Description:
Number of strands: 35
Low-confidence stretches: none
Largest sheet: 12 strands, mixed
Distance between the termini: 66 Å
Mean pLDDT: 92
Shape: elongated
Structural class: mainly beta
Radius of gyration: 28 Å
Strand content: 25-35%
Amino acid sequence: SSLTIYCEASEKPSGWDSWWNDSSRPVVWNCTECGVTENGVKWGLTKEGVITIAGYSGTSTEVIIPETINGHSVTIIGNRAFSYCSSLTSIEIPNSVTSIGEGAFSDCSSLTSIEIPNSVTSIGEYAFSGCSSLTIYCEASEKPSGWDSSWNIDCPIVWDYKNNGVADNGYIYYVAENGIRYALKDGKATVARQSRSISGAIVIAREITYKGTTYSVTSIGEGAFSDCSSLTSIEIPSSVTSIGSYAFSGCSSLTSIVIPDSVTSIGEYAFSDCSSLTSIEIPNSVTSIGEGAFSGCSSLTSIEIPNSVTSIGNRAFSYCSSLTSIVIPSSVTSIGEDAFSDCSSLTSIEIPNSVTSIGSSAFYYCSSLTSIVIPSSVTSIGFYAFSDCSSLTIYCEAESEPSGWNSWWNDSKRPVVWGYKG
């Protein structure tokens, strides 16, 4: 896994099997000499006197590639040269470099910014694939013709950055003193995707001032802190109105969070798999809880849904295995598919008269649930709604099964009391 291969041959000989290098380790062809710089940068000298950067064996998080090595110009950053350098946060490319190879920086998940000089005329496919925290700053005002069409999958790009600093999507990317990255546009700021290495307690700013312009922080963007597994707490300012999809997904060390009453929407899977989250306060300003918003929050013991919420999305609380009880407010009209599936500790739940539909598998494998009252307002229940609820008795206000209930709504044939009046 740490290997770089240096070959005297100028290309792969016909007798070498097509899978001879099945792990796609970095290869320097036409090589006459090789070595490693003091800071751990691996290099190879070709017969033409060109230095190719072939890999990295150092431990520093910041790397400067030299412009010359042993009197020879550093011209090429080879295929997969820095791939999977997951602790690398910054790298400096000299003006001597003209070519960046395929997958050169792929899966450098902690790399936050990189500057590509005008000298670079060629970049191979997927050069920055999997760089989930990266913003790319290019001296060129537009993509040179020699750059592969798939050179960059989804990293934001700032073209002509020395002059205008504006990314190709119209945003300005700014890093605050505490390391939090923001995207600025039209007087508003969004918390952008962060490095996964971010840790501890984090405070999000209420506003950002950049080059004399003040931007109000109004949203936490999609996947902003996803998989930041060392993040323990976060303070969200009252200027924020929305929390994007997957914003805190996989923040496994996050124990608690307070959502300000300015927030109106919680995106899909916003807090999914926050396995250490024990409690959360949802303000009255929130009107919808997105699909999978709290799924996999296995330490969440209780949650209060405010009466401003009108819908509970599919899988919103699925796999919340420590959740024991929940009260659904009278503002809610629908309970989504798998909304509470695999909530194995859930013993009680109240469904108000406002609810008209219960989605498929909504309470699947709620094995500790002993009773539930379904009001007469419910005209639709999906299949397997109470599947594997082994301790459950169902009390229905309706005198008989409504036509809108799926024939498999009670597939496990749990006991049903019709015409229940309390």
